[in-house]
Amino acid sequence: MPVVKADLQACQGYANCVVGATDYFDLDDDGIVVLLKTEVPEADRSRVTEAARSCPVSALVVEN
Amino acid sequence: MNTTTVIVGSSIGGVRAAQSLRLEGYEGEIILVGEDPELPYDKPPLSKSVLAGKAEESSIRLLTREQAEDAGIQLLLGHAATGIDVAGNLLQLQDHEPVRFDHLVIATGASARPSPWGQRPGIHVLRSLDDARKLRTNLLKGGTLAVIGAGFIGAEAAATARSLGLEVTVIDPLPIPMSRIFNPEIGHWFGDLHRNNGVTTIFGTGVESIDGEQGSFTLRLTNGANVEAATVLVGIGAVPNDAWLGASGLLVDNGVVLDEYCRAVDAPHIYGVGDVARWRHEKHGEDIRIEHWTNAVEQAACVAYNITHPQSPRAYTPVEYVWSDQHDWKIQVVGRVGGNAEHIIIGHPELHGRFAALYTTDGVNLRGAAIVNWPKALLACRRGMGTGVTIQELREKLEPLLDPQPLAAS
Q1: Closest to B378 (Cβ–Cβ): which among A15, A30, A49?
Q2: Which of B294, B382, B383 has its CB closest to that of A54?
Q3: Cα–Cα nearest to A53, from B106, B294, B14
Q4: What is the mean pLDDT of residues A20-42?
Q5: Among B16, B23, B382, beta carbon nearest to A19
Q6: Mean pLDDT of successive 10-residue stretches along chain B, which has 410 residues
Q7: Which residues does chain A have within 8 Å of residue B386's beta carbon, measured at their own beta carbons?
Q8: A12–B297 CB contact, under 8 Å
Q9: d(Cα B407, Cα B410) in Å, to the nearest integer?
Q10: Which of A9, A54, A57 should one mutate to test binding to chain B, selecting the residue with the greatest count of B CBs within 10 A?
Q11: Cα dihedral sign, B193-B197-B199-B200
Q12: Which residues in chain A are contacts of B376 at CB distance < 8 A?
């Protein structure tokens, strides 16, 4: 199953991912991304990939 | 399925449209056309990490040749689009034969508004990678940088130049910087931000002319004063790249005019994305054009969906979002701000190091927010814009976060 991965060093807290897929992404108190789940079922792949690609600093990737 | 989608414009909107088409399962041909001969690159870092020399050019690539090949995206770079034969489904290109399309995505972006004070070496704009290279080369020679325009690009470049150790003077005809976007109180704080970081600010004064040459310019101001500078950056906004559509017959009015599904109003197989697109925003009830990175990304995804789901297209109704990094401020703007909108401000830059300005038109509901250095507030506002939060609810949520009380000993 595809998995979503986060580069916590790169994250700048823009929150585009949270807006794109609020059931997969959140921000902690410092504004760093929190992955609420990492496995991405096929039905969610398009939506979660779009949310990951909306990161302005490419901190997120969905891998097969 | 032997259809072809041609995307004109190889910046963020065009690249994302191509990638999103594949994500939506589009099996036809995709041709990505770009005037810029460079491989597609991301623009927000140009005024920040690239100008500062902190980011390699390779780190801002949006698409490598291998990635394009893997995704089945044909690259046709270095050719400007010159026109569209709408009835014949042909895109006309400079120094290339016309390209046939079934669907066309117009994503030609915007250009920096050119300097009205002459264009010669040492007078820069900042929009492309090549612009950033040229400006950086001149900044590294040292001397004073004069920035005309205290908007996002000018302010970011000014901050970057300070970080490189240059003397910087920012000039803007507005008496209060950023007051086209925000209310005056916040605008004053932006002025303080620049001055606290060693930038000389001259506000409420225009530039009459620029005399001299690279290395020794004299800017003559409308108040009679002169400013000496080695290098000049002109950051006075952008204009949509829509002139090439002039003979196409498509409706163009400060951008290509689109319906709520981002289709050209007079040619539903032609779409628009990003800075060049003026579309019908159903929730705002008006045609709008947005020059922000996030809008290009979201609009590209919507257009890709609409091309692949012609029976059930989605209206594009985003909540606006833009960010800017200036000195030690991370500025984030959600929804619609400023103007005559009533607002409340939570926090203060000097007392708390962060603040959020919440705007409302009806006195109750959140219409937009400007947030500095406060991720929790940003998230609350971005989520709240979708769920219809009131500014009072946000105030009650955010104010206690400003001065966290130490945990009571028990």
Answers
A1: A15
A2: B294
A3: B294
A4: 95
A5: B382
A6: 92 98 97 97 97 94 97 98 98 98 98 97 97 98 97 97 98 92 90 97 98 98 98 98 97 98 97 98 97 97 98 97 96 90 93 95 94 94 91 95 57
A7: 19
A8: no
A9: 9
A10: A54
A11: positive
A12: 27, 29, 31
- CATH number of the domain residue A27 falls in: 3.30.70.20
- DSSP characters over A29-43: TTS-EEES--B--HH
The alpha-carbon gap from B342 to the nearest alpha carbon of chain A, in Å, equals 25
- CATH number attached to the domain at B114-236: 3.50.50.60
pLDDT (0 to 100) of residue B179 = 85
CA-based nearest residue in chain B for residue A33: B375
Name the residue among B16, B24, B44 with its Cβ closest to that of A53.
B16
Per-residue pLDDT band at A50 (split at 50, 70, 90) = very high
DSSP single-letter state for residue B241: S
As a whole number of angstroms, the distance between CA A55 and CA B79 comes to 29
Mean pLDDT of chain A: 95
Distance separating alpha carbons of residues A11 and A59, to the nearest angstrom: 6
Q: What chain B residue is nearest to A54 in terms of C-alpha separation? A: B297
Q: Give ranges for CATH 3.50.50.60 in chain B.
A: 4-111+239-308, 114-236
d(CA B393, CA B395): 5
Contact yes or no for B23 and A31 at CB 8 A = no
Domain that holds residue A55: 3-63
Q: Which amino acid is at B111?
A: S
pLDDT at B406: 46
**ipTM higher than the 0.90 cut:** yes
Which residues, 6 or more positions from B353, have their beta carbon under 8 angstroms from its beta carbon? B373
Would you identify the CATH topology of the domain B4-111+239-308? Answer: FAD/NAD(P)-binding domain (3.50.50)
Which of A9, A12, A14, A48 should one mutate to test binding to chain B, selecting the residue with the greatest count of B CBs within 10 A?
A14
B353 touches chain A (CB under 8 A): no
What was the pLDDT predicted at B100? 98
Distance from CA of B364 to the nearest CA of A (A): 23
* CA dist., res. B166 & res. B180, Å (int): 28
Number of domains chain A is built from: 1
Q: Which CATH superfamily is domain B328-402 in?
A: FAD/NAD-linked reductase, C-terminal dimerisation domain (3.30.390.30)
B375–A53 C-beta distance less than 8 A = no
